[in-house]
Design a protein that fits this description.
Blueprint lengths: L12 H9 L3 E4 L8 E5 L2 E4 L14 E4 L2 E5 L5 E3 L4 H5 L3 E4 L1
Antiparallel strand pairs: 1-7, 2-5, 3-4, 5-6
Length: 97
């Protein structure tokens, strides 16, 4: 996958979202660290084999997880990400190499 994309200053979220869907990582210039960025987690299917899902579904049940956007935090953790109004309207998004 080509990774040498040059983004102009002032890239908005709708432009960046297309890149995230294609497998690129992205962040806002004002975020805490260069280590903090968003990335796509593609959906998957797996069989339930541990808690907490075994408390909801019988063991062996196939579960389909939908695709989502996660964030790698500046501390190195991965968390689900939900865009704020500020993030959606910001024009300082960049692709992370």
């Amino acid at each position: 996958m080509e990774r040498s994309i040059k983004m102009s200053v002032g890239t908005n979220f709708s432009e960046i979202l297309d890149f995230i869907k294609r497998g690129y990582k992205a962040k806002r210039k004002g975020w805490n660290s260069d280590e903090q960025f968003l990335f796509l987690v593609k959906g998957s299917v797996f069989k339930v084999n541990r808690a907490p899902l075994m408390g909801i579904y019988p063991e062996g049940t196939e579960i389909e997880y939908q695709s989502r956007i996660d964030m790698r935090t500046s501390q190195g953790n991965v968390v689900p990400w939900t865009a704020s109004q500020t993030d959606i309207l910001a024009e300082d998004w960049v692709i992370v190499a």
